[in-house]
Design goal:
Distance between the termini: 45 Å
Radius of gyration: 22 Å
Helix content: 25-40%
Structural class: alpha/beta
Shape: elongated
Strand content: 15-25%
Largest sheet: 6 strands, mixed
Number of helices: 11
């Protein structure tokens, strides 16, 4: 059995520090691309973005909390468990796609890897579920394109094939989480859950019933890094298309003064809307709101 040891000197070009790739018009090693995508929370709740892996690790060592990822135009939430990042975390997907692009552009490395049966990484971070040795083994077993399949959710986002992510809106910790309400004082479903989690949202909703109508929005800060936005878009349990369009424009104005805070919308905003109208709304969202994601 022939074993690939990623930390050997002769294999340094297979490490994230020496594997370079150009993304978003910037050529850097994979390690820097990965760490520079991390979003940290400053003491006043605003976002902080490290320049490189050294600054990222310095902040983490100092106890500065990571709150998300900035990848291209998107700011995306963390997916964590007790051990660290989940395999479907957006940062893990980003790391996988960086290797996918690098190896696709360097076919001689792919050919070289074929001679090995096992891949070891003695310095693998225990909190990171899919390191470079895992990537190389996956390629050996299933081919290069299997990496893209592992990161299909992020791939679709970056390709603008979809703005939807599988994420519970109530688990968002940074940015603006939006939900639909009606001007008649009735709350259902997601809105009730949000008000239970954040009672001030319900109080604000009740206070605004005298002055708000379809197409209005109300912003309620619930922490120094998170706000809830009431979108007055509902008639009964259906979304009013005209009101939704007005809310998207107002969200764009809100985001303009709060960049780079992301906006998260529930997939239910498309309830009761025809496919053609939904396509127009999604286009409006994509053109006016960024960073943005729709949570399913």
């Amino acid at each position: 059995m022939k074993i690939f040891e990623s930390q050997k000197k002769e294999h340094k070009e297979f490490t994230a520090f020496f594997a370079y790739v150009s993304v978003f018009n910037e050529t850097r090693c994979i390690e820097n691309h990965y760490h520079a995508a991390k979003v940290f929370k400053s003491p006043n709740g605003t976002a902080m973005f490290p320049e490189d892996w050294k600054e990222s690790r310095k902040w983490a060592k100092a106890g500065v909390r990571q709150i998300g990822w900035k990848i291209g135009d998107f700011i995306l939430p963390l997916r964590m468990n007790s051990k660290g990042y989940k395999i479907n975390d957006f940062g893990v997907q980003w790391y996988i796609l960086l290797w996918y692009k690098h190896l696709r552009e360097n076919p001689e490395k792919l050919e070289y890897l074929q001679q090995f049966d096992k891949f070891n990484d003695s310095y693998k971070n225990k909190s990171f579920p899919f390191g470079q040795a895992d990537i190389m083994l996956k390629i050996k077993q299933d081919g290069l394109n299997s990496l893209r399949s592992l990161a299909s959710e992020l791939w679709n986002l970056l390709s603008y094939k979809s703005l939807t992510i599988k994420y519970d809106l109530l688990d968002i910790k940074y940015g603006f989480i939006c939900h639909e309400v009606s001007p008649d004082g009735v709350m259902t479903g997601l809105s009730q859950q949000i008000c239970k989690r954040y009672p001030s949202v319900y109080d604000s909703y009740q206070d605004s019933l005298l002055c708000c109508c379809l197409g209005d929005i109300r912003v309620i800060p619930v922490s120094n890094s998170l706000s809830v936005v009431n979108l007055f878009t509902q008639i009964g349990d259906q979304t009013d298309l005209k009101a939704l369009r007005k809310c998207v424009i107002k969200l764009a104005d809100l985001q303009e003064t709060s960049r780079p805070a992301p906006i998260y919308l529930p997939q239910t905003i498309l309830n009761g809307i025809s496919d053609d109208d939904a396509s127009q709304v999604l286009s409006l969202i994509e053109n006016h709101l960024m960073p943005v994601a729709i949570c399913s």
